[in-house]
Amino acid sequence: MDAMHEIKPGQSIELLKALHILTRDGKMNQDSRRKLKQVYHLYQFIEPLLQEVQQDHPDIQLVDHGAGKSYLGFLLYDLFFKTLNNASHIYGIETRDELVARSQALAEKLHFPGMSFLHLSVAASIESERLPARVDVVTARESTAAY
Asked: Where are the domains of the chain?
């Protein structure tokens, strides 16, 4: 099965290449296939929750703690948030400066205005004024090693 059969309709090929899930020529290796499958699996759990929250709050505020390289956040934005055309936003929380800077640059390059990345610990994010007062969904992973 080629890579295009595993990619969801409307998904950003440029994003998948930037995340190194696809090579420059659009191919996918076994590690990338596994990584994409894991994130899609998480998305299957999160999407119904997002749809439910959207009924009460059309502008969903999601905070992704321990964002790492932000595979999950970017794919959530690409598959769900980018079509909302409202004030919905994903905040990636990460303690490693280089990952925050890299993710912010990628969001700007891809014109994903509803994404921002903050150099904060989980503890600091609880009291941070850089996050909205209302947060609808929080994602967190014990370890990002599987991503």
From this structure: 3-140
Q: Are residues 7 and 13 in contact, defined by beta-carbon separation less than 8 angstroms? A: yes
73 touches 67 (CB < 8 A) = yes
pLDDT, tens digit, for every residue of 8-54? 888 999 999 999 899 888 888 888 888 888 889 999 999 999 999 99
Dist CA 143 CA 139 (whole Å):
12
Write down the architecture of domain 3-140 according to CATH: 3-Layer(aba) Sandwich (3.40)
- Angle, in degrees to the nearest 10, between helices 30-56 and 71-79: 60
Q: In the numeric block, which tokens belong to residue 131?
A: 């996050």
